[in-house]
Amino acid sequence: MEAEARIRQLREQLEYHSNRYYNMDDPEITDYEYDQLMLELKALEKEHPELVTADSPTQHVGGSAKREAGVLVRHRVPMLSLQDVFSKEEVMSFVEEMREQLDHPEFVVEYKIDGLSMSLRYENGKLALAETRGDGINFGEDVTANARVIPDVKRTLKDKLPYLEIRGEVYMKIADFERVNEQQELLGKKVFANPRNCAAGTLRQLDSAVTKERGLSMFIFNVQDVQGMEFATHTEGYAFLKKQGIPVIEDYTVCHTAEEVWAAIEKIGENRGNLAYDIDGAVVKLNRLSDRELLGSTSKVPRWAVAYKYPPEEKETKVLDIELSVGRTGRITPTAVFEPIRLCGTTVSRATLHNQDYINDLGVGIGDTVVVYKSGEIIPKVKEVLHDKRPEGTVTFQIPSVCPVCGAKTEREKDTADIKCTSPNCPAQLERHIINFVGRDAMDIKGFGTVYIEELVRQEYIHDIADIYYLKDHREELIEQGIIGKEKNTDKLLDAIEKSKENDAYKLLCGLGIPNVGKAAAKGIMKHFKTMDALMHADEEQLQEVDDIGAVSAGCIRRYFAEEQNEDILHRLSNAGVNMELLEEEGTDDTLAGATFVVTGTLPTLGRKEATEFIEKHGGKVTGSVSKKTNYLVAGENAGSKLAKANDLGIRVLTEEELFAMAASKDV
Predict the structure, then answer these.
(1) Would you say 471 and 447 are in contact if contact means Cβ atoms under 8 Å apart?
(2) Residue 420: helix, strand or coil by DSSP?
(3) What span, in angstroms and rounded, lies between the C-alpha atoms of 79 and 71?
């Protein structure tokens, strides 16, 4: 039967996208597209009630509790979803249904914040537990440690009630989201798609310090349970929470008629573009708690509330230009600049085009007429190109083969849609390049933080990595301007820079930012060539004589040293006194040469770092994961899954003592 096949297909699609949204915090489609799939499934199930099953997405709350995010806890009060409605008629129908069943019901209309749901339990006025929605019915994740670092979460209440459970939405303000993504890009990490994903991932962080640094916010939207006090209405609960200093949903409206409810929804829709955070709809709920209790809930949603989803607002406009910007990772991002239009209460004139694949899929060029929309989000998007309105001579835009900032060659990054500038000295990438250079795996200049780097680059004291070693010439200016701090802090950093000149040359090589040359590769390369000068003059064939250096890495190294600008930087580094040779450490030998090790568990005397250094000192190679290429696993207490995998693959397992004996006896 055709309907049965389509229902099965829709269920699979919805479960897949629900998992990406709730559990992976990485959706592939918009909320609107998801809603359309759900509406189609509901319509088919209504036509064919005999095909409705308990495991259908229409019958249960999306999401599941994830053990890796925290300890699972059982809900005391279910954290249900809301019934979505998409038209004025559906809203009116809900209001009339409530009026038919209840005596003069009151309604509250409020923002539906786009974030992650969380409940807080207070015992005797103190925060006892914070939990995510999880599966909504049985279990959620304990995120108490992270909740404690959210400023909006109060640790103690002014009124010490025996028990209070409240539910709200953890979200990220747009300004905080942009700050976090900027930092992610600066560190070369994956950026978040939108504030909701960022908030969800941050709340589930295992490190509360990261949660605190990113900056989450929270609004409470419901009192779930209370002991020691009674509320007659939802708004009475809000008044109590405000008295405790707890933020509740802003600008809610109490309504009595369907017309008042719709007017409040329209008002929220007009204002959503002016908010400091994203909303994905408006919630209409009964105000009197006795009415809610009378109506109850289904297995998925309460019967006393609905969520209105605004339709995507879209308008036509003309593309005036496509601008190219280079991010701190070298990624080139195209942005469409178009004739200004009003969407969701704000004027917009720009929208990202993401990458060349996105441009090609749309077929967009300068001069094209495009449809721009907002689907309950702040950020405008280009939906489609109206090719029947394309002016003669207009062609699909192509990102050029040279960087728009520095003129260097651009390349498409393998297995991605990103086109990047290949020059590590590109001004747009400079801050990230410096961060890599001073980092632990490279020159390891202690105290050289991101804030100092940004300011030194901004004030043009640093134009490339070599300039770091000439900062001492500006000591008095730096102290006077307070860029690094007063005299003591400035001298401390300058001394750390001076000391780094003595580093082994492999650290310098690692810091140059050559693609595919990390710490391990840099060590192997310098061990082979001994001096930076010998490396600079090596051809690709000679470079491939080094273990694990293939044609791609050899090509990257050769291109780097062939650039005149890089040759000048190395010359200035050498003149500044930076070591350019491999340091032959006392006790270094090749007794473990040719062998690949993995270190796991807690060893008796060596930490993981010390064990790695010991193996490398004796010529061995250390990797992070067990594979068929692994020769030995060095295992201590609590070795875990790596030990099990090594045993499965028949890899020899060593104790720390056996490792020492092997290095001494050359028995590899």
Answers:
(1) no
(2) strand
(3) 17
Could you report the per-residue pLDDT of 118-151, keeping only the tens digit for each?
A: 999 999 999 999 999 988 899 999 999 999 999 9
Rounded Cα distance, 399 and 199, in Å:
32
d(CA 590, CA 583): 15
Is 112 one of the annotated active-site residues of the chain?
Answer: yes
Phi, psi of 132 (to 5 degrees): -85, 175
**Burial profile 105-122: b = 16 or more Cβ within 10 angstroms, e = fewer:** bbbbbbbbbbbbbbbbbb
**Calpha distance 628→187 (Å, rounded):** 32
For residue 143 the two structure tokens come to 């995120």
Kindly name the residue from 42, 88, 112, 285 that is annotated as catalytic: 112
Q: State how beta strands 253-255 and 107-113 pair.
A: antiparallel
Task: Please give the Cα distance from 532 to 418 (Å, whole number).
Answer: 32
Cα angle vertex 86, ends 84, 91, to 5°?
A: 85
First vs last C-alpha separation in the chain:
65
- Helix then strand then coil, in percent of the chain rounded to 5, is 40, 20, 40
State the DSSP H helix or E strand holding residue 132, giving kind and residue range, or none if neither: strand 126-132
User: Considering all CA atoms of the chain, what is the largest pairwise distance in Å, rounded to the nearest integer?
Assistant: 90
Q: Residues of the chain with pLDDT > 70: what percent?
A: 94
- Residue appearing with tokens 């798609």: 193
Whether residue 268 contacts residue 111, with contact meaning beta carbons closer than 8 Å, is answered with: yes
Position 190 pLDDT exceeds 80: no
Full-model pTM: 0.56
Positive or negative CA dihedral for 179, 422, 326, 331? negative
User: How do beta strands 346-352 and 410-412 pair?
Assistant: unpaired
Tokens of 249: 């949903």
Reference 201, options 185, 219, 214; nearest CA is 214
Runs of H (alpha helix) within 171-257: 174-186, 195-203, 208-214, 234-243
Mean pLDDT comparison of 138-147, 159-168, 169-178, 560-569, highest-scoring range: 159-168
